[in-house]
Amino acid sequence: MIGIAGAGAFGTALAVALATDGRQVRLWARDAAAREAMRLSRSAPKLPGIILPEGVEIRDNVTDLAESGAVLLAMPMQAMRGFLASTPEILSADLVACSKGIDLTTLQGPAEVMAEAGAKGARAVLTGPSFAADIARGLPTALTLACDGERAETQQHLLSTASLRLYRTDDVVGAQLGGALKNVIAIAAGLVMGAGLGDSARAALITRGYAEMGRLAASLGARPETLAGLSGLGDLILTCTSAQSRNFSHGMALGQGRAAPVATVEGVATARAAVRLAEARGVDMPVTAMVARLVNHEINLGDAVRELMSRPLKQE
């Protein structure tokens, strides 16, 4: 039995993939009306055309998830701390965070938030290049499961399916930072494309963004090969090159001078948190800092580009 707290697109997609592969899944949505609609229609509002398999059971009581072999926390990063504080019953289960971000209040990643909340079971982070629609449709997807405990291999086998391949790592810091920081660079990539600056500019932006992701991760003890893997480079490539990415689409809308789509965009809060974290660690992150200023409306795109291009010349 697998529990999933959060029935947005990603949580529901994981429920569909796991149940299609024969797992029994308990799925909980925060909104009672949404739960009832999903139970009656067996459809997923945020995944058009996807039907919930019989193995997906919609639960009204979130504490029922505590009886599962693992509970997946499929919610925005900024909501996780409050959710765990209000739902202490699930802290005894193995927890797997599916959030990609940095908590704005504590500057912690998902693993540290779970630990501070008093999680007693295994604490893992599921991250990597993936769109919910692809997972729900059974398209081949590879993700990273980061866990430094003895339960890592058990969770890897529990959550892998015929179409969802999980690679495990014990570098939790590197995996969760890769997943968080790539969202910031994706906003920047969207800005570049939305403003019509071209593919060459986007390639340069992604490369320099990846370099600063590595600098911050290394300062916090992450291994370089983790950032070069699925949770870093793999996810960065996906989110910086596809309009399916909410972060990329958010940046593109800003670059075009349009109102950004109404959706959870983890990179906005992460940019703000990453700037504070970088300053505390003495790490230079010019792209991230510029994204933070842009989303805070402290600078316009033209001035931002001029500032980045006029930085002192140096060796790569």
Query: Could you say what the CATH architecture of the largest domain is?
Result: 3-Layer(aba) Sandwich
Strand segment count: 8
Largest sheet: 8 strands, mixed
The mean pLDDT is 94
Q: CATH superfamily assignment of the largest domain?
A: NAD(P)-binding Rossmann-like Domain
Roughly what percent helix?
40-55%
The total tally of domains equals 2
Indicate the CATH class of the largest domain.
Alpha Beta
Neighbour order of strands in the largest sheet: 3-2-1-4-5-6-7-8
Helix/sheet category: alpha/beta
* CATH fold title of the largest domain: Rossmann fold
SS strand fraction: 5-15%
The end-to-end distance, rounded to whole angstroms, is 50 Å
Order of SSEs: EHEHEEHEHEHEHEHHHHHHHH
Instruction: List low-confidence stretches.
Output: none
Number of helices: 14
Radius of gyration computed on alpha carbons = 19 Å
Backbone shape: globular
Pathway: Membrane lipid metabolism; glycerophospholipid metabolism
Family: Belongs to the NAD-dependent glycerol-3-phosphate dehydrogenase family.
Binding site for NAD(+): 6-11, 132, 246
Binding site for substrate: 100, 246-247
Walk me through this protein's architecture:
One of its GO terms (biological process) is glycerophospholipid metabolic process. Pathway: Membrane lipid metabolism; glycerophospholipid metabolism. It is an enzyme of class 1 (oxidoreductase). One of its GO terms (molecular function) is NAD binding. Its main location: cytoplasm. Helix 7 packs antiparallel against helix 8 (199-219), helix 7 (172-194) packs parallel to helix 11 (246-255) and helix 7 (172-194) packs across helix 12. This protein has 14 helices and 8 strands. The radius of gyration is 19 Å and the shape is globular. 49% of the residues lie in helices and 11% in strands. The model has no long low-confidence stretch (mean pLDDT 94). It has an 8-stranded mixed beta sheet, with helices on both faces. It has 316 residues and is an alpha/beta fold. The protein has 2 domains: 2-170, NAD(P)-binding Rossmann-like Domain (Rossmann fold, 3-Layer(aba) Sandwich), CATH 3.40.50.720; 180-310, N-(1-d-carboxylethyl)-l-norvaline Dehydrogenase, domain 2.
